Amino acid sequence: MLMVLVAMTAAAKQNIYKLTVVDADGQSVSMKQFKGKVLLIVNTATKCGFTPQYKELQALYERHHGCGLEILDFPCNQFGQQAPGTIGEIRQFCTEQFETTFPLFDKVDVNGPDASPLFTLLKQAQPFQGFDLNDRTGKMMDQMLRRQDADYDKKSDVKWNFTKFLVDQKGRVVRRFEPTESIDSVEAAVKQLLGM
Fold first, then answer.
1. Residue 25 contacts by C-beta under 8 Å, 6 or more apart in sequence?
2. Measuring CA to CA, which residue among 55, 102, 107, 58 is closest to residue 86?
3. Are 173 and 16 in contact (CB under 8 A)?
4. Do residues 39 and 166 touch, judged by C-beta distance below 8 A?
5. Phi and psi of 156, rounded to 5°?
6. Would you call 48 a catalytic residue per the annotation?
7. 187 in the Ramachandran plot: left (φ > 0), alpha (ψ -120 to 50) or beta?
8. Higher model confidence: residue 42 or residue 1?
9. What are the strands, taking DSSP E only, across 7-113?
10. Are 158 and 43 in contact (CB under 8 A)?
């Protein structure tokens, strides 16, 4: 237990702005360039039941980008192999189907030994808090994941595509939204950080 607390404390002290990620063009991008912005960091997939959330994310981006919101899109193929194809094919799909304009990054793992350091930090700062079991989709996700692992809810891992992490202007990871949560609750939290 002490080791877990030490690890969590170390992660909390790690600065998101010290990390580097790779964009869809294969270029290294320092997270430092997003300092002072509100960030919504999302692991996405193009063949998922939640894929239509791209439309909601783009609308959110259009409403609040000018006020300081950045949405960072990280495709991940770890959940049902639902982000197949090259990053070029993913970019084409997103722009043609949903006209996305927010930054797209290279495919990443969000769990396991090859997990992106960014997602490792995000998960440690905001562990899984559970699905809303009063919501039909939340209950379905809980049942599906519990069949695979009875203790799935005890781990901080990302559980599925379109998990969203909200980061404030100082680089603090302040909220985690499961894919079943409404875009309205995400937007309310974004607006609060933007002082709206």
1. none
2. 107
3. yes
4. yes
5. -80, -5
6. yes
7. alpha
8. 42
9. 20-22, 28-30, 38-44, 69-75
10. yes
pTM of the model: 0.91
And the tokens for 188? 């309310």
Q: Is the pLDDT of residue 11 over 50?
A: no
Residue 174 token pair: 């302040």
Measured CA to CA, the distance from residue 196 to residue 193 in angstroms comes to 8
Distance in angstroms between the alpha carbons of the first and the last residue of the chain: 40
- pLDDT tens per residue, range 46-81: 889 888 999 999 999 999 999 999 999 999 999 988
Q: How far apart are CA 104 and CA 86, in angstroms?
A: 13
Which are the contacts of 128, defined by CB distance < 8 A and separation ≥ 6?
A: 153, 155, 156, 157, 159, 176, 178
Q: How far is CA 92 from the centre of its chain?
A: 20
Distance CA 80, CA 71 (A): 23
Distance between CA atoms of 186 and 32, rounded to whole angstroms? Answer: 23
The span from the CA of 28 to the CA of 24, in Å, is 10
Give the burial class of 85: count Cβ atoms within 10 A of its Cβ; 0-12 exposed, 13-18 middle, 19 or more buried.
middle
